From TrEMBL:
Keyword Nucleotide-binding set for record: yes
EC number(s) on file: 2.7.4.6
Catalytic activity: a ribonucleoside 5'-diphosphate + ATP = a ribonucleoside 5'-triphosphate + ADP; a 2'-deoxyribonucleoside 5'-diphosphate + ATP = a 2'-deoxyribonucleoside 5'-triphosphate + ADP
Keyword presence, Ion transport: no
Biological-process GO terms, alphabetical: CTP biosynthetic process; GTP biosynthetic process; UTP biosynthetic process
Active-site residues, Swiss-Prot/TrEMBL: H126
This protein's name: Nucleoside diphosphate kinase
Species this chain originates from: Ceratopteris richardii (Triangle waterfern)
Residues of the full protein shown: 71 to 230 of 230
Keyword line: ATP-binding, Kinase, Nucleotide-binding, Transferase
Ranges where the Nucleoside diphosphate kinase-like domain occurs: 12-149
Binding site for ATP: K20, F68, R96, T102, R113, N123
Cofactor: Mg(2+)
């Protein structure tokens, strides 16, 4: 890829997206990953992982005072999740749009939760809510050498 094309891609951003245990158990992994791939974001981290309650609590620490927190931690640790790190301009907000509203009953059709989610406590997928949290969560869920920075060869066909 030419340096000119590389320079034109502008500032990039990273998001942590996670297919929650219900999404894995229901066989929705391929369907969900493909939505982010098709949208042109670069997959720079991917693994199946069963997390400790310590990690789940740290990930959701801002919600620790909420009444649903213990059940949320139980849910996230109840089976393997699929951890994704995604990169691209505007990926944080765009991934949240693709994911849809927290309550799947209110999520728009066409979004992952709108199409596949059942209820708030079984809403299939997580996405970082800010670029800062994207970085924080990628560092939390991935070891440094598990994140693979690469440049898709079709980038000139994705972005001008
Ligand atoms: N959650 C829940 N009950 C609630 C609100 C949230 O079980 O009343 C869970 C749900 O799995 C949600 C997660 O906690 O995805 C994090 O909540 P947040 O408000 O950050 O929603 P999100 O950013 O995932 O849309
Ligand atoms: Mg959130």
């Amino acid at each position: 890829i030419s340096p000119v094309v590389r320079a034109s891609q502008g500032p990039s951003e990273r998001s942590y997206v996670m297919i929650k245990p219900d999404g894995v158990q229901r066989g929705l992994v391929g369907e969900i990953i493909s939505r982010f791939e098709k949208k042109g974001f670069t997959l720079i981290g991917l693994k199946l992982y069963t997390c400790s309650s310590e990690l789940a609590k740290e990930h959701y620490k801002d919600l620790s005072s909420k009444p649903f927190f213990p059940k949320l931690v139980e849910y996230i640790t109840s089976g393997p999740v699929v951890c994704l790190a995604l990169k691209g301009p505007g990926v944080v907000a765009s991934a949240r749009k693709l994911i849809g509203a927290t309550n799947p009953l209110q999520a728009e059709p066409g979004t992952i939760r709108g199409d596949l989610g059942i209820e708030t406590g079984r809403n299939v997928v997580h996405g970082s809510d800010s670029p800062e949290n994207g970085e924080r969560e990628i560092a939390l869920w991935f070891k440094e050498d598990e994140v693979c920075e690469w440049e898709p060869s079709m980038m000139p066909w994705l972005r001008e």
